[in-house]
EAL domain-containing protein (Sphingomonas baiyangensis), 281 residues
Amino acid sequence: VKRSKKSGRTEVYQTRAFDLARQQFSVETELRRAIDGGALTLSYQPICDLASGRIVAFEALTRWTTERGVALSPCEFIPVAEESGLIVPLGRWAMHEAMRELAAWDAASGGDCGVSVAVNLSAIQLQRDQVATMVRDALDAHGVNGRRLTIELTESAIVADPDRVTHTIRALKDLGTRLAMDDFGTGYSNLAYLQKLPIDTLKIDRSFVSGMLADRDKVAIVRAILSLAQALGMQTTAEGIETNELAQTLAALGCNYGQGFLYARPLPGDQALRLLSSFNQ
Ligand code: C2E
Ligand code: MG
Ligand code: MG
Ligand code: MG
């Protein structure tokens, strides 16, 4: 344990197993401060129509640079946020911030800027009845039409408590929002929910997409997801497109949309708006 001269706080540096709990606690404490103190930001990654190449949406992804200047991956801090319950204020912040940015893009464009924004909702948030109220408040606060918002859910969100979640999902749909099933194919749920829930889009997980050109099994899985979506009247977005060849192959297979480093990495809001005007002119 070292004492920071600057802040006088005690910071934990050990990585031994028995200190992991304490380390998690310090991450949690600092994350709480980051949410309250405005230290989080959102980056925006374009989602493109594979046929035309036009940007149709941006996915909002939370970014956190800690007080020591370390940029942590959401894969590291979102699980901590979920375990500690901090995902509720974090998710509320992200929803409000994403709607604020979308309204700012519209204002800068002199009207509807032409894209929607996708925001991730954690299973823990979905299990709370108030989540639709939270989303409505965020839309209202920034005068955004619900049709401009896509909510990304994971299969784990649905497995936990299907009946309760069905009710909440309908309340979200009543706001006009679109629903996307994120990381589709990686959950371990049965597929019955696809019939029952008003899901608009399946996002094919990156693990099936990247490397699929050299792997017939991955192609088979991608094809199966595409035909499932088509049969159920859902749209499809492929995650993790890093090459032109992949984009062309997916378009030829009938996938609607694509997201990945080929188009752009997640960008700060002002850069995302500039990308939009250069892409879609
Ligand atoms: P996700 O929702 O599946 O988001 C897509 C992730 O894939 C992002 O990682 C993005 O940067 C990355 N990605 C996009 N294109 C490519 C590509 O071509 N190649 C590679 N290798 N990666 C690509 P990121 O931003 O690190 O976020 C990771 C996960 O953290 C997200 O996965 C999402 O599940 C979660 N997350 C991020 N922000 C939030 C949030 O505000 N709320 C919640 N509940 N979860 C969030
Ligand atoms: Mg997502
Ligand atoms: Mg995803
Ligand atoms: Mg993913």
